[in-house]
Structures are given as C-alpha cells and as structure tokens.
Write a structure and sequence with these properties.
The chain has helices at about 20-35, 90-100, 145-155, 180-195, 210-225, 245-260, 280-290, 310-315; strands spanning about 5, 10, 45, 55-60, 70-75, 80-85, 105, 110, 115-120, 125-130, 160-165, 195-200, 235, 270, 295-300, 325, 330. The chain is of the alpha/beta class.
C-alpha cells in the first residue's frame, strides 16, 4: 500500500453539525469500504484521540449546491481526510470521489496525501430511467435491495434523479417479487434516502375523448401520487405512446396538476411533443405563452420532438432558464 494508511481510521460525523445527509453518507462510506476491504470502520460523532480520521461534513451553499471538496493531509500518527459537500447530494458525491481514489486490498486501505479536489456538476439534472415492468431485461427480477445498491452507485457517480415508469402492465411477470404499487413506494423511498429526485414517466396512451378511460387514467395518477414517498416531476409524453392532440393533452395535464399539488406541492408536470406535427407544436407553444401555467415545469425533448433550439426560442423566459440533460430525454 502507498499513501496515507487509513486501515485503522474512524469515520467522523460531528454531532454539532450532523444531518441525515451526513449520517447517510457516512453509513454508505463505511458499508462500501467493508465490502471491498473487509474492514469494519467505526462511525463516530467525535474525532479520535489518536489515529487517522475520515471527516464527513457539509458546509452549506457554495458555487454549486451539489459541489464537494476532498482533501487529505494531517501529520504524524493522525492523518486525516475531509469530505465536504455543499449540500446533501454534495456530501454523497464526495464519498463517491473518495471511493474512486482510494487504494485498497483485503485488510488495508490508503489514499494519496496532499489531495485537494473540488468538483461541481455542469448540469442541474443528471438522471436515469428505470422500469419495473416485463419489457425490461433484468429489472423485473430485481429485489428492493438490488435497486437500492443500483441507485446508490448512480448517486456515487454523480446522478441526482431517477425517472420511474409506474404505469406497468396489469399482468404480473413470474419473475416479479413485489406488486407494482409496492415497488413505486420502495423506489421513491430509496430516492428519499439518498436525496435523489424521483420522477415518473406516465404516458396518456388511452383515447382522452373517452370519458371513462380518461377518468380511469386520472385515478391511476392519483394512485402513483399516493404511493410516492417523494416526487419531483411528472412527465407525460404527448406521444410515444399516445396519439392525442394537444387540445386534449394540456387539459389533462391541468387535471393531473390539481391532483398532484395537495400531495406533492413542490412537484411540477412536464410534457413532450413527441410525434406532434407543426400545427400541434404551435398549439402547445401558444397555450404556454398565453397561460403561463405555474404547474408546468417545462418541455421535454425526446425522440420525434421539436429540437431544443426551437423550444428555447418559443418558451417564455420562466421555462427556458437552463438545459437539463437526461440519459433518455432532455428537459428544458
């Protein structure tokens, strides 16, 4: 091993500043170190009298709310590593940076001395879509623990949002270990645990002229809102799937927003114009320009959508402040 020997280190979360974020990050750090090295590193609220320490702390807003710093140094028998996040997510990203930089083997752990790393994300949304459904090649067989580890690792590498697909097929896959509604609760709970945004992808694939089908669809939305422990955004694609005109889609979004607000007041509704022709696109732009709905988070650029540049030209300023890259869609 080279660098600072941390094999006997204590992970420190000081009591006067400890938050759920810091405690979660410290637990993640201890568990991931044990998986790799076998070392059961203690977590304490106080600095050790002697021996190395890994301090996990937060410092409030900085140049980016999700930034972090990672520093190593110290002297004599008390080398120290300090992981400082500007927010709950920043602390977890700092833990991820430490795990990637540490040198380790069974029974030992070290890191280079003199490290001074600062990092901040370039994009406000860095997400990944998952779907507990039969069309997936593996997720339908996963346990909650597997999803937990998956989301954890996404977070350690800098993800800050998960987009779930809660409208799954009615039939159960023999590989599925849980009912779909239970999984919605579990996935949203995992997001809350790690401080991740939880989005849902909820298409309107029924004929919205059919009042009974529309009412049933809204009931399904209410179930999702009830089941979600936390919820950041509701994304309804205008098409893919679905073939409803915007004259029916936008009023549906209004009804969705009315049902969403009492349960998740900070969440927004988003929409794409996938599959829309020029006439339908113009209808949506005019609707937004004329109404400026407060419940609208923005537009999503997915397959067969207008280009982002057109969205930026046409959207009022309140909706086009920043670009949100996503693995599967772009939200602006």
């Amino acid at each position: 091993a080279t660098g600072m020997d941390l094999s006997q280190a204590t992970i420190v979360v000081q009591a006067r500043s400890a938050t759920d974020a810091e405690s979660t990050a410290a637990t993640v750090l201890a568990e991931e170190i044990e998986k790799r090295t076998g070392i059961q590193m203690p977590v304490s609220n106080a600095m050790p009298e002697n021996g190395p320490s890994i301090v996990v702390t937060s410092a409030g807003p900085a140049r980016s709310p999700e930034s972090y710093t990672l520093r190593s140094g110290g002297s004599g028998s008390q080398p120290a590593v300090t992981i400082t996040g500007a927010s709950r997510r920043g602390v977890l990203y700092g833990v991820g940076a430490f795990l990637r930089r540490m040198e380790w083997g069974k029974g030992w752990l070290s890191i280079a001395s003199g490290l001074s790393v600062s990092s901040a994300p370039a994009s406000p949304i860095r997400g990944h879509q998952v779907g507990y459904r039969t069309t997936a090649n593996s997720w339908d067989a996963w346990t909650v623990a597997q999803f937990d580890q998956y989301f954890r690792e996404l977070a350690l590498f800098g993800a800050n949002s998960i987009e779930d697909i809660p409208f799954a097929e009615a039939r159960a896959n023999p590989l599925m270990k849980y009912p779909r509604r239970q999984m919605t609760k579990s996935l949203s709970s995992i997001c809350q645990k790690y401080g991740l945004d939880y989005w849902v992808w909820t298409p309107a694939s029924v004929d919205l002229n059919d009042k009974a089908k529309r009412a049933d669809l809204l009931r399904q939305f209410e179930e999702v809102f009830d089941d979600s422990v936390t919820l950041t955004g509701v994304f309804v694609p205008g098409g893919d799937p679905g073939d409803n005109p915007p004259e029916l889609v936008m009023p549906l979004l209004e009804d969705i927003a009315r049902r969403l607000a009492p349960k998740h007041p900070n969440a927004k509704v988003w929409v794409s114009m996938q599959g829309f022709n020029k006439e339908r696109e113009e209808w949506v732009y005019r609707y937004i320009e004329q109404n400026r709905p407060a419940w609208l988070g923005g537009l999503v650029a997915g397959p067969s959508s207008p280009p982002i540049s057109r969205h930026r030209e046409r959207l009022p300023a309140q909706y086009r402040l920043r670009l949100y890259p996503d693995i599967t869609h772009n939200k602006i």
